[in-house]
Structures are given as structure tokens and as C-alpha cells.
């Protein structure tokens, strides 16, 4: 259980910080809380669409983070 929560915390923290940092080069600059909201909505597969990455590098980062989350989290849950 500790491994699951620590992995989830590290994924959310690194995704939030990297998305916020990469989105600085985009047209819409997002603060840290909005980036955290985006990451939580994306990781929960809800995807409201109110915030989205508009720069190619941040899009690539989100694709990689979703792949890592779907690859790592199921093994920690089981």
C-alpha cells in the first residue's frame, strides 16, 4: 500500500511540475494549481477538456505520462 501511494504521489508531482513548466512556452500559461487539476482529471480518465496542452512539447509530455501511469499503476495495485 505504501508503494502504491508513494508511486502515485511521485507520478502526480512530476506530472504537475513538468506540465506547468512546459506549458510556459505555450499560449496559455497555467499556474501550479491548474496544472494539478489537469493532471488529476487526466489520470482519472475523465478529461473535461477545459484545460489542454497547446504546445507540442507539453502534449508529448502528457502522452508519455499517461503511458507511464497506465503501465506502472496496475502493477502496483495488484
From TrEMBL:
Source species, domain of life: Eukaryota
Membrane topology: Multi-pass membrane protein
GO MF annotations in UniProt: intracellular sodium-activated potassium channel activity; outward rectifier potassium channel activity
InterPro entries xrefs: K_chnl_dom, K_chnl_Slo-like
Record protein name field: Potassium channel domain-containing protein
Signal peptide (residue range): 1-18
Compartments reported by the entry: Membrane
Organism of provenance: Panagrolaimus superbus
Swiss-Prot/TrEMBL keywords: Ion channel, Ion transport, Membrane, Potassium, Potassium channel, Potassium transport, Signal, Transmembrane, Transmembrane helix, Transport
Domain Potassium channel: 8-71
Gene3D superfamilies given in the database record: 1.10.287.70
Any one of the GO CC terms: plasma membrane
Transmembrane segments: 55-73
Amino acid at each position: 500500500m505504501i508503494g502504491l501511494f508513494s508511486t502515485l504521489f511521485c507520478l502526480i508531482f512530476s506530472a504537475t511540475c513538468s506540465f506547468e513548466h512546459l506549458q510556459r512556452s505555450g499560449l496559455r500559461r497555467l499556474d501550479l494549481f491548474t496544472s494539478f487539476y489537469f493532471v488529476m482529471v487526466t489520470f482519472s480518465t475523465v478529461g473535461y477538456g477545459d484545460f489542454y496542452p497547446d504546445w507540442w512539447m507539453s502534449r508529448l509530455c502528457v502522452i508519455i505520462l499517461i503511458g507511464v501511469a497506465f503501465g506502472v499503476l496496475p502493477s502496483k495495485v495488484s
